[in-house]
Design goal:
The complex is a heterotetramer of chains A (121), B (262), C (513) and D (235). Chain A has a single domain, classed as Orthogonal Bundle (Helix Hairpins), CATH 1.10.287. Chain A is 68% helix and 0% strand. Chain A has four helices and no strands. Chain B folds into three domains: 67 residues, no CATH class; 117 residues, Periplasmic binding protein-like II (D-Maltodextrin-Binding Protein, domain 2, 3-Layer(aba) Sandwich); 62 residues, no CATH class. The longest helix of chain B has 22 residues. Chain C starts with a helix and ends with a helix. Classes of the chains: A mainly alpha (121), B alpha/beta (262), C mainly alpha (513), D mainly alpha (235). The interface between C and D is large, with 57 and 56 residues.
Chain lengths: 121, 262, 513, 235
């Protein structure tokens, strides 16, 4: 399948997501990067059993072509929903933070939060 | 089946494109495009169930809520050191002379005004990095050529603060241009001193106990306060200059000054 | 059948709580009673058999979700129910919404599912639900700093779970199943395959983020210290332990001994340094929790039966006294208005009597004074460790524990008896404190006599008192000499990189083994 | 507040690249997996569902799905809890309406709802299921909200009553899952007959689950969308 198979691509996507998570300071974009990480893992699972000449997992099975493994597809549905739940809740929390700190810049929020805190060491 | 490698190849490009956008709206739309591509990849990988769910959840619902949540209008980000009378927090709100000018500027430009309070010495760094548009908070006009200076909006009065007692009488006042916090600290320590300070520092100090000092106002307006902008904010600089000039011409500036400094 | 009923009852209760929206407390108590009965029945069934298995839906092995009730599951399930009761008692007089009880049910239910499931993907879903429920619990009081702590918690946990999902993909590609025993059989058949270390390090580092292993979970103390007392107790007693349970399950698949020992030792020692240097009571407790996770991992990695039993015993003991400490610390901090130790010491007369006694019992348990909880579990654990270096590491962690809790001693130097406190809190303290004090007879019901005998020999006593003396010495030594410890690591950016670094560490260890 | 310094940038890039390299090298991906699909064909035949994915999703691995529904419920609950408590801005102005949107809403909304119902109740026969059906319908209501405002849509749907239905549907899912245990059968097994594959009434309880989940997710995603519309533009 060459280099352009789903698994390799998903690993590259994971790398892109990691860099986004580290380098983008805006929380909204950090969350998008987080979603990308999860999507990458999902793509990885779905591409495990995929063959170009396979058939979607519906009965009755066609005689000529092999069915694609349905299990990764089924479990991935849960993963997509979980991904959504995390993104929605995190966004709500970002909204609450913005109300208090007036910024979505992670480092600035960090500084303000540290400044508010009594010394604890 | 030749479409699959193409779409798979596009995926990292779309993701990298989305995550490097400067504007959040662009990034969100970019990720929506990514999700659609991903859904079609799932379809071509013989996973129609996953494709439908990804399109409905990843491409539609997530995009909706993110687009709804973010603000479409731009912001005017101001970094300021807190100075009484000029720009200060009072009861959950921000008030002051400079803040009022900034509000008018934001209103004129149709931007949301966001003020972040930082230490005085950080303002130049932040502006040079381009993390904020404008610096405020009793900044004395300076000739720092790395930054843009708006026309002065307020002349500062000068105050001499001298310790009572025989030691002070012979000392010449030295100009004290340290940061506000340093000045307050000096007074709080009740160290023997004799110095001249500008209006902003005086206002800050006057909240301390000044029993131990003689205070007198010098009627000589040597210096002025001005806003400071990053080098790349030329257009904003023009708008702000025009605003200050028109405010001064209409007399609003004097009226505001009287209101904040009775 | 009881295996699946335990979590299902909790989930049903969560749904009912929200649908009915009143009498939430009554529902919780009923559910707790039902679950206790089910657990006792399960315990009786385990008397006659090594383990109870259940294939959900009656499907074939290999495709069905497999539930197994064994000693690990039983132990942790009892701990979860004990803490559930403590939290219910403690919050009895508090005004709480149905929302809180629903989340409580979810945490308990997911915990009960977690301890029995032997399916990798099922574990993933459970851990995510646990993450979300505890995320909302941490932010329950809606203060901005809590919100920030909890958002970091969510982001880093979710990164960990993405790693876990990738690990699942690797495993499924090579084995074609998600059931842990089946995977273990495949791995045993080809132990040298290249994908094994990769899969192990992805799965382990994913879970480690949840389990509070220090390299991966630097963000965690912030989240713990910020939550309300009942929630902190639950987080450190249940939520973190679930990550540890999954690590134990993973060690059935992969040869993780070396990894567990190295991770355990670093976690234990690093966290104890932070704990010694921390002068905020709740943070101290949170950091200390991490160091105790180190104990558990060393116990499990050491490989002997006694060490394993000791680790399980210690997990329960720690859950009990840490919950006690968190609850009492919460009440004390609320009475004083600050959780800073200096403030607490200065105004120690204002601490309610019940909270002070509870703190004392907790400290006695935690420093391992014979014959209470900490001592009993530690000596069993140590009797199973044979390598000298591990002994040294465990001893150091014990001494460090004493050193970090010696800071609390001035709290008890007071004549005033303090004002009386709420009966609800006293009931919770009584329940947990009683368990801490009577831990030895309690664990005798579970742990074989031959293993338990190790606690009554003089070396165990000597070791325990030695650790206390050394700890007090360290406390004297470092008191008033603050050390600058890196705090940047608690940010999201650095946290992400540290998690990646941890992945490489585990990978290297797996290749070595 | 400094920009990340060079060593930090380098470390991050090296870590990420090394991570990808290890993964690609050690994954050992050589074409599609050789896992046997036969066992799942057998399972789907026993469950009576044409769509093998839904047979696994709602029968073989039903417990995962139950947890997933709970995850979604928690998300809805969290959004509602945190955004309601903030109080909504006094006057939530309508999203500026354009003719295009109005016409689109009139034409598209019934179509969207129809599709979502089809996707939901044909989940065991064709791609889709309760979850995607519910999300499609719930976010489709955004169109209506853009034209009429969230309050009007909410009133039309029956406001408070809607909340009750949502939790009743959630409760229904769990009661349905508990029935086999109550009757002393294997937990989480399917009591309804498999039926003839391909017929709408086949697939045992899958159709019931799909409908309940669809209802729950429909209301849930509408609640989420509604709250975000009311609090839009806050970041």
């Amino acid at each position: 399948m060459g280099i352009l198979n789903g698994v390799t691509i998903s690993i590259v996507l994971f790398g892109v997501g990691l860099l986004g998570l580290i380098f983008r300071r805006d929380l909204v974009i950090k969350l998008l990067a987080l979603g990308l990480l999860n999507s990458a893992a999902i793509l990885c699972l779905v591409s495990l059993g995929a063959t170009p000449d396979g058939a979607a997992p519906f009965l009755p099975a066609p005689a000529a072509r092999a069915l694609v493994d349905p299990l990764p597809q089924a479990v991935v549905l849960s993963a997509i929903v979980i991904n959504f739940a995390i993104l929605a809740l995190a966004l709500v929390f970002v909204m609450l933070l913005v109300e208090r700190y007036h910024t979505t810049d992670a480092q600035r929020i960090e500084q303000e939060a540290e400044a508010e805190e009594e010394t604890w060491t | 089946m030749s479409a699959l490698p193409v779409i798979l190849g596009l995926l990292p490009i779309a993701a990298a494109f989305a995550l490097t956008r400067r504007r959040r709206l662009d990034a969100i739309i970019g990720m929506a495009v990514f999700s659609l591509l991903l859904a079609s990849a799932f379809f071509l990988l013989h996973a129609p169930d996953v494709a439908i769910t990804e399109a409905a959840v990843g491409a539609a619902l997530v995009t909706f809520i993110y687009v709804l949540a973010i603000r479409k209008t731009g912001r005017l980000t101001v970094v300021a050191s807190e100075v009484p009378g000029l720009i200060e927090r009072a009861g959950g709100q921000i008030t002051g002379f400079e803040y009022e000018i900034l509000e008018r500027l934001a209103g004129r430009l149709g931007l949301d005004l966001v003020v972040q309070f930082v230490a005085r010495e950080e303002i130049e760094d932040i502006l040079l990095r381009g993390d904020a548009d404008l610096g405020a908070g009793g900044i004395l006009s300076d000739s720092d050529h790395r930054l843009l200076w708006a026309p002065p909006h307020l002349p500062t009065a000068r105050f001499v603060i001298a310790s009572r007692g025989p030691a002070a009488a012979v000392t010449e006042p030295v100009p004290f241009r340290g940061y506000v916090a340093d000045t307050i600290d000096a007074v709080r320590r009740r160290s023997t001193l004799c110095m001249t300070v500008d209006l902003a520092r005086f206002l800050a100090i006057s909240r301390q106990n000044l029993d131990a000092y003689d205070v007198r106002r010098i009627e000589e307006d040597a210096e002025t306060y001005a806003f400071v902008l990053g080098r790349s904010r030329g257009d904003l600089h023009r708008q702000l200059s025009a605003l200050i000039v028109s405010l001064r011409a209409s007399g609003d500036l004097d009226e505001m000054a009287r209101r904040h400094f009775p | 059948m009881d295996l699946i009923l335990l979590p299902l009852v909790s989930f049903l209760a969560a749904a009912v709580t929200l649908a009915v929206r009143r009498r939430s407390r009554l529902i919780s108590v009923l559910v707790l009673l039902v679950e206790a009965a089910l657990l006792i029945r399960l315990g009786l069934a385990l008397q006659s058999a090594e383990s109870v298995t259940l294939l959900l839906g009656g499907w074939d092995r290999g495709i069905a979700i497999l539930f197994v009730g064994d000693q690990i599951g039983m132990t942790f399930a009892s701990l979860i129910l004990a803490l559930d009761l403590a939290v219910l008692l403690y919050t009895w007089r508090q005004e709480l919404r149905p929302y809180f009880f629903m989340l409580l049910h979810l945490v308990v239910g997911t915990g009960l599912a977690m301890v029995f499931t032997k399916d990798l993907f099922n574990a993933y879903v459970i851990l995510e639900l646990l993450t979300l429920a505890s995320f909302l619990l941490v932010g329950y009081e809606r203060r901005p700093r809590e919100i920030w702590a909890s958002l970091r918690y969510l982001i880093l946990c979710s990164l960990g779970m993405s790693l876990f999902l990738l690990g699942i993909a690797v495993v499924y590609y090579h084995t074609g199943t998600l059931s842990i025993p089946e995977i273990a059989a495949r791995v045993a058949a080809s132990p040298d395959a290249r994908w094994v270390p990769l899969a192990a390090s992805l799965l382990v580092s994913g879970v480690a983020v949840k389990a509070g292993i220090l390299l991966f979970s630097l963000w965690l103390p912030a989240a713990h210290a910020r939550a309300m007392p009942a929630v902190s107790a639950l987080l450190s007693g249940v939520v973190i332990k679930m990550g540890v349970v999954e690590l134990f399950r993973l060690s059935e698949i992969f040869p993780l001994e070396l990894t567990l020992i190295v991770l355990g030792a670093t976690t234990g020692l690093l966290a104890i340094v932070y704990a010694i240097q921390t002068y905020d009571l709740k943070r101290l407790l949170a950091f200390h929790t991490l160091s105790q996770i180190g104990y558990l991992l060393i116990g499990f990695g050491a490989g002997s039966e006694a060490a394993r039993l000791g680790a399980l015993d210690y997990a329960v003991a720690h859950g009990l006294f840490k919950a006690l400490l968190f609850l009492a610390a919460g009440e004390a901090a609320r009475a004083i208005g600050s959780s800073s130790l200096r403030e607490l010491v200065v105004r120690r007369d204002d601490i309610p009597r019940g909270a002070r006694i509870a703190l004392l019992i907790g400290v006695v348990g935690i420093v391992g004074l014979p014959p209470f909880a900490g001592f009993a579990a530690k000596s069993i654990l140590e009797s199973g460790i044979h390598a000298t270096i591990l002994h040294a590491a465990v001893g150091l962690i014990s001494a460090g524990t004493v050193a970090s809790f010696a800071k609390l001693l001035p709290l008890f130097r007071t004549r005033s008896s303090g004002r009386c406190c709420e009966w609800a809190h006293v009931a919770a303290y009584g329940w947990l404190g009683g368990a801490v004090l009577l831990f030895l007879p309690l664990s005798a019901t579970v742990i074989p006599r031959s293993v338990l005998a190790a606690t009554w020999r003089w070396p165990a006593f000597a070791e325990s008192f030695g650790a206390i003396l050394v700890g007090l010495g360290i406390h004297r030594l470092v008191q008033g000499r603050p050390l600058r410890l890196p705090m940047r690591l608690f940010r999201i950016e650095e946290g992400t990189m540290v998690i990646l670094g941890g992945f490489f560490l585990v990978y290297a260890l797996m290749r070595l083994a | 507040m400094r920009r990340p310094r060079l060593p930090l940038i380098l470390t991050a890039v090296v870590l990420a690249v090394a991570f990808c390299a290890i993964l690609i090298a050690d994954f050992g991906f050589t074409g599609p997996a050789s896992t046997s699909v036969e066992r799942f064909v057998g399972a789907a035949e026993r469950a009576g569902a044409v769509n093998m994915v839904s047979a696994i999703y709602l029968n073989v691995r039903l417990f995962d799905t139950l947890l997933e529904v709970l995850v979604f419920a928690v998300a809805v609950l969290g959004v509602r809890f945190y955004l309601t408590a903030r109080g909504r801005p006094e006057a939530v102005e309508k999203i500026p309406e354009s003719r295009v949107v109005g016409v689109a809403a009139d034409v598209l909304l019934p179509l969207i709802l129809l599709v979502s119902v089809y996707v939901t109740i044909h989940g065991h026969l064709s791609p889709g299921g309760g979850f995607s059906g519910g999300v499609i319908a719930g976010s489709g209501l955004l169109l209506a909200a853009m034209v009429a405002g969230t309050d009007a849509v909410d009133r039309r749907l029956g406001g408070r009553f809607l909340g009750r239905v949502e939790w009743a549907a959630l409760l229904g899912v769990f009661v349905l899952a508990s029935v086999p245990v109550a009757l002393g059968r294997t937990p989480l097994s399917d009591l309804l007959p498999a039926g003839t594959p391909g017929a709408i009434g086949s697939g045992g309880s899958i159709l019931l689950y799909n409908m309940l989940i669809g209802l729950k997710v429909f209301i849930g995603s509408w609640v989420i969308v509604k709250h975000f519309v009311d609090h839009r533009g806050e970041i």
